Amino acid sequence: MRQIIKHQSSYDHYESDACIVWCFDARFSALLEKFIAEKELRNIDLIKIAGGARVFATHEIEAEEDYFRGQIEKSVKLHHTRKVILMVHQNCGAYGKTFDDTASEENFYKTELENAKKSVEAFLRSKNLQIPIETYYATFDGLYQV
Q1: What is the pLDDT of residues 101-127, one digit of tens each?
Q2: Other beta carbons within 10 Å of 125
Q3: SUPFAM superfamilies in the record, alphabetically (predicted)?
């Protein structure tokens, strides 16, 4: 083994300000960084996945959904996470959808976020865990809380 980067990470255990489920689309990475800074989130558990919260709203692959719900559960149990943040974004390739206008696209993603939130709430409740869940819709001009 050859060390390629020398860096001293903290051994101290931390509490997570948020478990964030965000799309891995790099066009929204700078927005995520700005969001974390503006919300003053110091310690986060970040789950980056194609479509972000889509995995909880659009039930296609149960094993995938189970895996990512399990990641949220681990965040809450291991790091005493204070809240879950779910995100979807405009023009998401993971959905493979096109829309006639901006309003219909916004309505679609708003419904997806509502479904994702209900799914995660039900899962956490089944594990006797209760923490706030926030939902956000990202566009090419900013981030909107839903």
Answers
A1: 999 999 999 999 999 999 999 999 999
A2: 10
A3: beta-carbonic anhydrase, cab
